[in-house]
Amino acid sequence: MNAMSDKKKSPAAARPTSRDVARLAGVSQSTVSLVFGGKAEGRVTPERREQILQAAQTLGYRPNSSARGLKLGTQKLLALGVPNVSNPYFASVLKSVIGSAAANGYATVLINTGEYGNDPERLLLSLDAHAFDGMIFWEASWTARALEIMPTSVVVVDGDSSADADVFIASDVIVREMVDHLASLGHTRIARVGFDLEANTFRVRSRAYREGLQAHGLTYDARREIEVPFGETSSSRVEALLSQADRPTAFVCDDDLLAPLVYRAATRCGLKIGESVSVVGVGDIELASLLEPPLTTIAIPTQSLGESAVDTFLRKRAGQPTTVSTVQTRLILRDSTGPCIA
């Protein structure tokens, strides 16, 4: 009897608690609660948060979702994980997912997966994935490993190929259409501005840009391919490109958010968008129609995308077969593109 009692009290046999995590991380238990309760922003430094997550990972700690459920009541939850919550495109996706999920009795929680890099285990530790009925994630390169350890139904959006995704966005087709449009207007010196991110989407678009040039017999020039950090506000690199004697006459931008860099650079170089320089973006966010002149762009319909993702989740949740849904994009012609006059 005593041996059994001792075994129950053995630290090795007991499930790690938030108190254990706090002790190992050298912080208070309330600080641990802030991190795993999703209330750390502005209250716990990134360094301290990292320290707590490392301690939890070492101990194999998992938040107690059952206890949380007793406090909050029963709620069906669907997580939407996007690589950057600052991108307004994902705000439109979120709106669609929230509406579709709510119509089926689910509340939606937004997760900024970029904070967790390529470490799905850390995401699971921080979020307590058991609390969710399902998850919708961008980037198959990130979710491939997560699928193996995720305890819920997972929907992958925008994978490496249609074989890796449940909802597929053909990034290569998008860029080829952009290059085709500019080449049809007589442009032969076409540049690309993309984000300097590890996301597979932008690697695919870089490759498709080169292939698109080759398809039209155009020479690839590394000087004309610029990648900038997300949130970049300096247009100096584009200005330098437009100051060259053999400057580009057209740009493909991996995201509508990058187009203002080209607009600003063109203005500073005394060039007019739509005449001296043509620009095409991707996304058709609200900004695209507000620029002057309005931006020609590839629209990726967020409403149907969100609906397809939620529908796929519901089918997986019910154990029903699913098929890959390919998002239908379209080129929207506005005044930022025109015939080459250089």
Question: Could you list some keywords that capture this structure?
Answer:
43% helix, Rossmann fold, alpha/beta, four-stranded parallel β-sheet, 12 strands, 342 residues, 3 domains, 434 Repressor (Amino-terminal Domain)
Give a nutshell description of this structure.
This is LacI family transcription regulator. The protein has 342 residues and is an alpha/beta fold.
From the coordinates shown, what is the CATH architecture of the largest domain? 3-Layer(aba) Sandwich
Range of helix content = 40-55%
Order of strands in the sheet with most strands: 7-6-8-9-10-12
Q: List unreliable stretches of 5+ residues.
A: 1-12, 65-72
* CATH C-level category of the largest domain: Alpha Beta
Structure class:
alpha/beta
Q: H/E order of the elements?
A: HHHHHEHEHEHEEHEHEHEHEHEHEE
Q: How large, in whole angstroms, is the Cα Rg?
A: 24 Å
**Which geometry do the CA atoms define?**
elongated
| Tally of DSSP helical segments | 14
Query: Might you state the CATH topology name of the largest domain?
Result: Rossmann fold
Summed over residues and divided by their number, the pLDDT gives a mean of 86
Q: Please summarize the sheet with the most strands.
A: 6 strands, mixed
CATH superfamily of the largest domain: Response regulator
- Indicate how many domains the architecture comprises: 3
Strand tally, please? 12
Q: Report the sheet-strand fraction.
A: 15-25%
Amino-to-carboxy terminus distance: 91 Å
InterPro entries: HTH_LacI (IPR000843), LacI/GalR-like_sensor (IPR046335), Lambda_DNA-bd_dom_sf (IPR010982), Peripla_BP_I (IPR028082)
Domain HTH lacI-type: 16-72
Region (Disordered): 1-20
Keywords: DNA-binding, Transcription, Transcription regulation
